[in-house]
Amino acid sequence: MKLPGKHRSPIAAFLSLCLLFLKILQPGHSHLYNNRYAGDQVIRLIPKTEEEACALKKIYHQLKVDLWQPSSISHISEGTVTDVHIPQNASRVLLAFLQQANIHYRVLIEDLQRAVEEGSSLQTQRNRRSVPTYNYEVYHSLEEIQNWMRHLNKIHSRLIRLFSIGKSYEGRSLFVLKLGRRSGAYKRAVWIDCGIHAREWIGPAFCQWFIKEALLTHRSDPAMRKMLNHLYFYVMPVFNVDGYHFSWTKDRFWRKTRSRSSKFHCRGADANRNWNVKWCDEGASTHPCDDTYCGPFPESEPEVKAVANFLRKHKKRIRAYLSFHAYAQMLLYPYSYKYAPIPNFSCVESAAYRAVNALRSVYGVRYRYGPASSTLYVSSGSSMDWAYKTGIPYAFAFELRDTGHFGFLLPEMLIKPTCIETMMAVKNITMHLLKKCH
Predict the structure, then answer these.
(1) Which of 146, 158, 293, 392 has its CA 20 to 30 A from that of 79?
(2) Sign of CA dihedral 391, 392, 394, 396
(3) CA 90/CA 95 separation, integer angstroms
(4) What angle (nearest 5°) sits at the alpha carbon of residue 430, between those of residues 197 and 147?
(5) Number of C-beta neighbours around residue 25 at 10 A
(6) Which phi and psi angles does 218 have, rounded to 5°?
(7) What is the dihedral of CA 277, 281, 285, 288, to 10 degrees?
(8) For residue 179, what are the β-bridge partners?
């Protein structure tokens, strides 16, 4: 007598064995980004002298490394904290050079491919797509974010209106959500954008969190109720839509837009160096292959042009411009392009001081704050400086968590605490707008 389940045919056993061997022989199938970061590292070093800084600039340029902090080789000087992503094929040369020059370094990420996969596993990607049960504690692709925006537009029509301000270089819609209680009275507004730089995924995650919190708490939270009653919020969760999509599909650490030039093979421009304020001056590059390339002319990037046109059209109504980046844990205000105080410095500085204190009160996370030029570095053609020069009196750029331990790969488990503390800062700035500052 044969017992069920006790015997398999030789053919079935052979097929199972074949499948097992196929899995062993094709390990690359399960790797994200085609395993392109295997063997790559991220290191941190701080040049102790200008001589060391010059030597680093030279070898970085020769090896064409991916600089994480600061954004440009030109910003490296004595005492500058420098985080650099080293491809496997360049690591032996660079590390040998550092040892020979007696320049000390620390490894931040030992295996970049593993860090990428741990930060965004294939399994969690499968579980994040359903809009009705949208998960705000994971990173979302552009398609998922835009579907979520359409969904909110349908079910929250009293508070939300979805519209497009134009098309990206590759033809994607540039969606904005207008949030606020509709009123016949004249209302001032706040502009919020996230994801100017594609690889800074925590930015778009915060923009989504902000919308979610506004919709969930406007009845129970007096501050949120006041904000939505007295102001409109224009929220652009993904500014650089082409670059963000590319960072999900091809290169996790892509920064720029994806525009093409007939003269050069390198693609894209830095969307935060392409604005018509001291365009292509200090802190921006004229070379199309550099991460801080300013573009062929101001507002050459369709994404920048569309946002600039919208802000110009509504500049009398918009009283604050907030842009979210990563990473550094800073709250910055103008100017970026020069060392000089802005005319309404006391009001802006007061708002920043209160905002970082409110943020710190949640988990004790410390943010530096101040003018971008002296707090971070000098850069020209930035959206924040342009917004301020255009007449928007409160212009801020947030550099969200962290300070380099994870860098651009902030784990999904830190999305919630990062967004909760940042909400405190944003609400504080917004409430500051509703008061008169002298």
Answers:
(1) 293
(2) negative
(3) 9
(4) 45
(5) 9
(6) -65, -20
(7) 50
(8) 160, 233
Per-residue model confidence as pLDDT tens digits over 349-366:
999 999 999 999 999 999
Joined tokens for residue 263: 């003269």
Q: Supply the pTM of this predicted model.
A: 0.92
What pLDDT does residue 128 have? Answer: 56
Token pair in block for residue 5:
């389940």
Write out the two tokens for 206: 């915060």
Sequence-separated (6 or more) residues with CB below 8 Å from residue 111: 38, 39, 40, 41
Q: Which of 258, 238, 21 is nearest to 139 (CA)?
A: 238
CA dihedral sign, ordered 307, 310, 312, 318: negative
Cα–Cα distance for residue pair 201/191, rounded to 1 Å: 19
pLDDT by 10-residue block (mean), the chain, 438 residues: 43 42 43 94 96 94 92 94 94 93 94 89 52 90 97 96 98 98 89 98 98 97 96 98 98 97 90 98 94 97 98 97 98 97 96 98 98 96 98 98 96 97 98 84
* Distance of alpha carbon 94 from alpha carbon 327, whole angstroms: 24
Find the helix packing angle between 202-217 and 222-230, rounded to 10°: 100
Using one digit for the tens of pLDDT, what is the confidence trace for 383-437? Answer: 999 999 999 999 999 999 999 999 999 999 999 999 999 999 999 999 999 988 8
Q: If you search the block for the tokens 């009275």, which residue do you land on?
A: 185
Work out the burial of residue 187: count CB atoms within 10 Å of its CB; fewer than 13 is exposed, 13-18 middle, 19 or more buried.
middle
Q: Which residue type does 29 have? A: H
Q: Catalytic site residues?
A: 399
3-state secondary structure the chain: CCCCCCCCCHHHHHHHHHHHHHHHHCHHHHCHHHHCCCCCEEEEECCCCHHHHHHHHHHHHHHCCEEEECCCHHHCCCCCCEEEEECHHHHHHHHHHHHHCCCCEEEEECCHHHHHHHHCCHHHHHCCCCCCCCCCCCCCCHHHHHHHHHHHHHHCCCCEEEEEEEECCCCCEEEEEEECCCCCCCCEEEEEEECCCCCCCHHHHHHHHHHHHHHHHCCCCHHHHHHHHHEEEEEECCCCHHHHHHHHHCCCCCCCCCCCCCCCCCCCCCCCCCCCCCCCCCCCECCCCCCCECCCCCCCCHHHHHHHHHHHHCCCCEEEEEEEEECCCEEEECCCCCCCCCCCHHHHHHHHHHHHHHHHHHHCCCCEEEEHHHHCCCCCCCHHHHHHHHCCCEEEEEEECCCCCCCCCCCHHHHHHHHHHHHHHHHHHHHHHCCCCC
